[in-house]
Design goal:
Radius of gyration: 25 Å
CATH superfamily of the largest domain: Glutaredoxin
Order of helices and strands: EHEHEHEEHHHHHHHHHHHH
Shape: elongated
Oligomer: single chain
Largest sheet: 5 strands, mixed
Strand content: 5-15%
């Protein structure tokens, strides 16, 4: 069904949950609203014409004030596009059909994006190999969609292929994407996974550091082993010691790895703030 009336009782299922499978367009309307009577048949016609590329959810704002308040509806008709549970585009007032088409075309996923969403579903069901195939097909269709490569890098890392993930991440160029928290965290995971593979046992590395406090190579490997074992604070202590003893060691790798760990930990929180202060105290 491409268009249906939705109320508070079924909103979560018919709109929020459904938006993870296809874009959902909410039309907030009321029986007394004249512009609503102009816009509503246009949306219904296009929902049928687009054949399932989006779902139209019609919400009577008078009967469902909770939903209207949730989405900050100030006037009607108010139309909002929901993708993955979030509002991605909206407009207020009655637009002509051509303008509504243009608006819809901005939220309808491209063929490459549809393949990407299929890949996400396959990966969630455990079929990672087929998911990677779909992502490769998506890249062929749209080489400029860098989020496809981010998804593929994430799956490769899950398969313990840090080298393959790193190759994909090295191709990213979009400045905003490179600053995204998910990408920063993924790059940190890839880098630390690669470094972990170089390490020896914790006991052996700890003994090497105890025997020679200036064995910075052993300290670095010990830090990575500790971080990989979810003992981030102990690992960061080792990295701080590397920064304190030799900023130039392996091109300032102590500081750079600390920044990776901050990203790995989500970039915030008490532990990250504490170690940011410690690092700043050493640098300035």
């Amino acid at each position: 069904m491409n268009a249906q009336d939705v109320s508070q009782a079924d909103f979560e299922e018919q709109v929020v949950e459904a938006s993870f499978k296809q874009p959902v367009v909410i039309d907030f309307w009321a029986p007394w609203c004249a512009p609503c009577k102009v816009l509503k048949p246009i949306l219904e016609k296009l929902a049928d014409e687009y054949g399932g590329k989006f779902k139209l959810a019609k919400v009577n704002s008078d009967e469902n004030p909770e939903i209207s308040a949730r989405y900050a509806v100030r006037g009607i008709p108010s139309v909002k596009a929901i993708v993955d549970g979030k509002v991605v585009n909206e407009f207020t007032g009655a637009l002509p059909e051509a303008a509504v088409r243009d608006w819809l075309d901005k939220i309808i996923p491209s063929p490459a994006e549809e393949l990407r969403r299929e890949a996400q579903q396959l990966a969630a069901s455990g079929d990672v190999d087929t998911a990677l195939q779909r992502l490769a097909e998506a890249t062929e269709l749209d080489p400029n969609n860098e989020w496809v490569r981010v998804d593929a890098a994430e799956l490769l890392l899950a398969q313990h292929n840090a080298e393959g993930a790193q190759r994909l991440l090295d191709t990213l160029k979009d400045i905003d994407l490179l600053k995204d928290a998910r990408v920063l965290q993924l790059k940190a995971q890839v880098r630390l996974a690669a470094m972990k593979s170089e390490g020896d046992s914790e006991a052996k590395l700890a003994a090497a550091v105890s025997a020679n406090e200036n064995d910075l190579e052993a300290r670095l490997k010990l830090a990575n082993v500790l971080i990989a074992a979810n003992r981030a604070a102990e690992g960061m202590d080792q990295l701080l010691e590397i920064v304190r003893r030799d900023r130039g060691f392996r091109d300032d790798i102590g500081r750079k790895t600390l920044l990776d760990v901050f990203n790995l930990l989500g970039g915030q929180g008490e532990l990250v703030s504490e170690y940011r202060r410690k690092l700043s105290g050493l640098l300035y």
